[in-house]
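Risk register update: the risk of archive-format incompatibility is retired. Evidence:
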Amino acid sequence: MSTHRRIAIAGIIHETNTYCRDQTQLGDFHIMRGEKMLQLEGSETQTGAAVGMCRELGVTPVPVFWANTQPSGTIARDAYESMKAELLEALAAVLPVDGVFLDLHGAGVVDGIPDLEGDLAMSVRRLVGEAVPLTAAFDLHGNVTQEMVDALDGVFVCHEYPHIDQHLRAREAVQLINDMLNENFRPSVRVCSLPMLMPTTTTFHGPGKELKEFMRELEADPQIINVSFFHGFPYCDVPHVGSHLVVTARGNGEIARDKAEIAALRVWSLRELLRPTSLSAEEAVAKAMASAKQPVVINETSDNCGGGSPGDGTHLMRALLDAGAANACFGFIVDAEVAAQAHEAGVGTTVDVSLGAKTDSLHGEPLKLRVYVKALHDGRCIMQAMAKGSRINYGKLARLQPEGSDNVDIVVGSRRSQTFDTEPFLAVGIDVTRRDIVALKSSNHFRAGFESIAGEIITADPPGLTTHHIEVFPRDHAVQPLWPLDDTIHWKPGDT
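Archived output:
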């Protein structure tokens, strides 16, 4: 029945931290056009899974345009307009199609356009018309607008944080397109937004896991196609910042709305359990050194490139060195200059370096160290936990051992990224399971690669652009009071 169907696949993906100093330019994006997008097939990514699902259904995937980059500052207007125009032009060139799948994030902000996803989805809808099924898969750290929801026939946010299931949601989004065509129905999509700035909360345990499981219970209703819990992204200053429940249902809009409100009420009722406990770098190191559950993993959540931070902060590394931590490793600090210096000097040399803190002083001061260059690597790796099978390039990697430290290794990378799995350590010869302390920069994605091997996980939260102390960020564009900035809020469905 679906042999000759064609589903277009496109996307612009960006998580925007509007508190970053610099705007994100066109050259910062990695762009794949047309058939090159098919290279993602087989990887646990949204676009790769969408292509694979099309083939399973006997549908022809029609790759159009895909752009992605690391979380960073507000996207320059001309950069977005260029990408959007190219996407729409390429899509127009392959029409007619039987459906469109969009690979999106949910927290994209453009200079002058606070809702990238809403603007793009509405533009695609205008191009293809109301009759063509249009669905999208998202990161759960999205801030949702009604305009975005109104443009789509199905919204599928990943359920897990770490996002180990993004590919599964993309498969469901493509499946819905096929079901709509086979069964001749149109879903209803409704959103219920909460005035709540949710901290980065894993779904592997605790209240995050409880809420994830509650959403799956709501999906047991045969009328419900998907319940999407967008935790939201608190590191951007837009009118629609918050947490959001979006329900896609087979029935009328009332069914979707009622389920969204039920889901939102459950999240609101558990909000106090979501308050994070923040430890300074020094407190986290002291706790790790006192632990008997090796290896202890310390994640520096406040300098997470996955939320827009520079990744070159030195607060946690300095605390490790000052405390005299032994048998420890840190992977990794972003410093292309030092990595290049080490590569030029070569393995076996000793060099003086000024490591890290090259972006600003918020994330610390440079570390003046004399280091032995133990190992070097080109930084090209294959992801093994989240987005498994996809390529990642950390740029030149260097393993440095500071003089005077007791079996301490610092991995230095050249390209901004958080640490997702053990690959950056293995690349330079470090087996983390043999270390007492393993330090890294990430909020929760690292759990996909480290939770099974960590004896204990401790979160360090020194100053940084992705700190849990969200009260330090100004809110010039928020249209309402937000919890936990205001603990006196009384909310019920219909208030937002």
